[in-house]
Hints:
Blueprint: H1 6-10, E1 18-29, E2 33-37, E3 45-48, H2 56-60, E4 67-76, E5 84-95, H3 111-116, H4 125-147, E6 151-152, E7 158-159, E8 171-172, E9 199-201, H5 206-216, E10 218-226, E11 239-248, H6 252-273, H7 275-289, H8 302-311, E12 315-318, H9 319-327, H10 330-333, H11 350-360, E13 365-371, E14 391-399, E15 403-410, H12 415-424, H13 433-440, E16 446-452, H14 453-461
Parallel strand pairs: 3-5, 6-10, 12-13
Antiparallel strand pairs: 1-2, 1-4, 2-3, 4-5, 7-9, 8-9, 10-11, 11-16, 13-14, 14-15, 15-16
The structure holds adenosine-5'-triphosphate (ATP) and manganese (II) ion.
Amino acid sequence: MGRIKIxxxxxxxxxxxxxTVKGWVKTFRNNQFIAINDGSTINNIQAVVDxxxxxxxxxxxxxxxxxxxxxxxxxxxxGKGQRVEIKVRELEILGDSDPEKFPLQPKKHSLExxxxxxxxxxxxxxxxxxxxxxxxxxxxxxxxxxDRGFVYMHTPIVTGSDAEGAGEMFRVTTLxxxxxxxxxxxxxxxxxxxxGKSTNLTVSGQLEGELAAMAFGEIYTFGPTFRAENSNTTxxxxxxxxIEPEMAFYDLNDNMNLAEDLLKYLIRYALDNCSDELEFxxxxxxxxxxxxxxNERSDxxxxxxxxxxxxxxxxxxxxxxxxxxxKNSKPNQKKQFKYLIENWGADxxxxxxxxxxxxxxxxxxILTDYPAEIKAFYMRQNEVDAEGRKTVRAMDILxxxxxEIVGGSQxxxxxELLEQRMRExxxxxxxxxxxxxxxxxxxxxxxxxxxxxERLVLxxxxxxxxxxxxxxxxxxxxxxx
Length: 481
Ligand code: ATP
Ligand code: MN
C-alpha cells in the first residue's frame, strides 16, 4: 500500500479503505489525536491512536515536529473540524523531534521570531500558505507569457555592464582581497581578475532583454537580481526576483495594457488555484489587524481586496497630473508629508505614492511621463512641452500597501537621441556599443517593464514585510542560511 498525500485523502469519499500517510506531527492531543501535515495542503489530517493498546514509549515519541508514517482505516470523523480521519493500525516514528529543543511549539509565534529560524518556518501554516502562493504565482507567470508566445530568455547574472545605474551593485571577483593587484596609478588591475575586467551581479536583465526582443519580438526574463542599496525597508531586498518582459513594436499604451493584464491574470490565478491558502491568509491578516487602531485597519479583507483589483481598471494619469493632486492634497497643505511637494520635478516618495493609491484614487494607479531627470537614460524622450519641461515615456504601477510594483517605459529607439542622453548622464557610450547596435541595425519602437516578484507576492498574500515572502531573505547585514 503506497503513501497517499494528505491533500488527496482529505477529498476522499471512500471510507473503510486502508491508507498510509507520511508527514510531520503538528499537535498531539489527549494522548489520542495526532494532527499530521505533509505539506501537500495547508490542512492537516487527524490520525487517532488507541492509547490503551499502544506502547507507552511509542506514544511519548509522538511530539510536535516528529516525522511519522501512519497506516490505518480511513473513517468518517465524528469530531468537529474535519470530515475524515485515520484510525491508526500501525504507527512508525521516522524521525524524532525533541520537544525540549524543537523551536516551533503548537502556539502562535511572531513573524520576527520565525525569521530567525527561517530554516524551520516552512513547517508553519503561514509559511506553507505563503510559499504555495509564491509557487503558484511563479508558475502562472510562465503560463501567461507562454500562452501569448513570449520567449523565456535567460539573461546573465554576472554582468560586465553597469550601465543601468539602478542602484548599487555587488562586485564579483576572485582577486585576493589581502593582496590586490594594482596598476601603476594605484587603481585595481582588473585584468588579473577572473573575467579580466570588473564584473558585478546584475541589477536587471533589461538591456540584454532588449537585444533578444529585437529578434524574437516578445520575450520575458524571470530571474534573480541584486541591489546593494542600503535601504532597510519592508519592501526592499538585496536579492530579489524580477519579471522583465520586453516587446518590439509596443508603445507605452501597449506596455501598460500588458502589465495590467499580467497583474490581473496573476491575481486571478491565485484566487482560482490557492483558495485554501488565501482563506487562511485572509484570517491571519484579520487577526493581525485586530492589534491596530480602527482607522489603520483595511476596509476590505484580503480576498475582497484582490477581487476589487480585478474588477477595476487601473487609474492612468501623468506625473504632472499627479504632482498637481499631491500639491493640493491635505497632507501636503498641512505639512504632514515628510517630503513636501513643492515643485514639478520632485521624485515621488513612497508616502506620495501611497496617498495617490490608498487615499485619492483608492485603486491601483499607473503614472506616466515622468521628468527625464529622475528616470533612466534608455527611456523614450517626449517632445519638450510648452513650459519647457522634459519628460520621458515612463510608467510606474503603484499598488495599495505596496507602492511601486512595476517600473517600465517605452524605450528610446532613436540612436542620436539615445547617445546624446547617455553622454548627458555620463554613461560610457563606447562600452555600450553592443547595446546601441540594436539602434544601428533595424531599430524599432519597443517597450518593456520590470515587475518585482516579491512585491507581487506581498500583495497577494497580504503579508506586510518582504522578508516573509522569500524563503531566505538577503538584506543589509543579513545573509543567514
Ligand atoms: P523603488 O523605488 O521601490 O526602490 P525602483 O524604482 O528602484 O523601486 P526599478 O528599478 O524600476 O525599481 O525595478 C523594477 C521593480 O523591481 C520595482 O517596480 C519593484 O517592484 C522591484 N524592486 C526594485 N527594487 C527592489 C528591491 N530592492 N527589492 C525588491 N523588489 C524591488
Ligand atoms: Mn530602488
